[in-house]
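Posting this for the archive.
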Amino acid sequence: MGGRKHNKLILDSFVLNNDGYTVERLIHGKDAEYNKVPYLDYGALAKALGPDFPSEYYGPVKTCEELTNLLDNETLAKAECFQVSRT
């Protein structure tokens, strides 16, 4: 990410959180410890790069309609800063 900042490249990140690994839950049991994915503050990803790196956080996106609205968002489409979308 630091290289993207140095070269003034814009990065869009879509973080998909399905609350674990569904296939492994079906094979090894839904309560297997390694399937428990921690909930992270995805909106803080860009802030880790510092205040000189503008960012925008969109989320959470929980429905198909919300995703469609996000993808139609003019600000997102312009990609003028680092953007994180949590779906």
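The mean pLDDT is 75. The chain has one domain: 2-86.
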